[in-house]
Amino acid sequence: MSTRSRDDEPLDSTAERVADFVSEQIGSSAPPSSSERAFVRRLASFRRVRRTRTRFAVGVTIAATLAVGGLAGLRFRGEAPTASALSYRLDNQDPPSGGYILVPQTADALLAFSDGSKVRLAARTRGRVVEVNSRGAKVALDDGKVSVDIVPRQRAQWVFEAGPFRINVHGTSFTAGWNPAEAVFEARLINGTISVATPVAGPEIHMHAGQSLRVSLRDQTITMGTASARETPSPADGAPASTALEPPRTGPAEAARWSHRGWMAALSENKAAQVVADADRRGVGAVLERADSEDLWALANAARYAGRYPLARQALSAHRKRFASSERSREAAFLLGRLHEGDAKGPADALGWYDRYLAEAHDGADVSDALGRKMTLLERWNRRTEALAVARDYLRRSPRGTYAHAARALVRSSTASP
Hints:
By secondary structure, the protein is an alpha+beta fold. The protein has three domains: 2-79, no CATH class; 88-244, Jelly Rolls (Sandwich); 252-416, Tetratricopeptide repeat domain (Serine Threonine Protein Phosphatase 5, Tetratricopeptide repeat). 45% of the residues lie in helices and 19% in strands. The protein has 15 helices and 14 strands. It has helices at residues 2-26, 34-43, 53-79, 241-244, 252-256, 263-268, 272-282, 284-290, 293-305, 309-322, 327-339, 348-361, 367-380, 384-397, 404-416, and strands at residues 88-90, 100-102, 109-113, 118-121, 126-132, 137-149, 158-162, 165-169, 173-179, 184-191, 193-197, 205-208, 211-216, 221-226. Strands 1, 2, 3, 4, 5, 6, 7, 8, 9, 10, 11, 12, 13 and 14 form a 14-stranded mixed sheet that branches. Strand 7 and strand 8 (165-169) form a beta hairpin. The termini are far apart. The model is unreliable at 1-9, 25-30, 46-54, 74-80 and 228-259 (pLDDT under 50).
């Protein structure tokens, strides 16, 4: 009994010496911790089986060698610095509360990240920086256009969501646009590679430099093409994002050639300015009174795209009056709500139009967006009780929608308030 006890005692004392030795080899001034000493004891535990002192000495030497590597790994893992999250500024100012961004009508805005990546947002673009971490960021585009230049880094992970579309990015430059009213997504890749997840196609669509993509949810169509150099200026060159998806500029002579019945075709080719110019030449009053549903709809949307908002309101109101039972008339209510969101006098007109659309459309394509916009508008004007009711309705109808994160945040803040 005494012999076994004496045999066990050197094991513990030797293990202690091994731990001290390992600590010296690691080069740490701190003494071995209790967990490190326990680690060495476990390595030397094979001595519990009776063996010769020579084998024990060899075993301890092996244990010490393993312990140097093992404990060094344990200790250095604990001391290794963790990568800090990226930071960003909006037009050289601190980030907005909650990451929400609403670009004014008169100028673009620039998101500049600490790793050198840049995201330029076109005028009237609305979106949000959802998350920023050490590997990249997640940006949601609710409406508008962006021009993106991501600096290549190992293990970078950038995600851009545009409505129901998701763009997975590494190091690349591209432009993207989402128009919820028309349910149209566009992307043009300048360099690098991206993949786009879309509700229309099954697998992700992989894009390469020089390619363009247009997806219409309304028509359920996907169009791939080649983007010209003029259409895709590099964000690194300082070109504003609004130029990336603008219609081509043409002279007055070309605008005069457009026939009245060609407006819808012109609009599909991004020639909104020519449609508006043709309406002006023919007389806006006459067009509003005599144009059919298709022409009025083309004019309303062309005026929106061209920034002629009073004319867009006139055309949409005329459509609702003259073609009240049409599907487009119901959608016109939603678009009128959007056009009135910026009213300085208050949100009454915008909210009224959204309510009309929700009452008329039931399960229409823009119901989720109308609810989200209504919620955001109410919160912006400090009508939190009403905004909370809309947020709950939104989560019930669209738990994974574009505004779901904002709606949940609003609900959480209400429950946390005393």
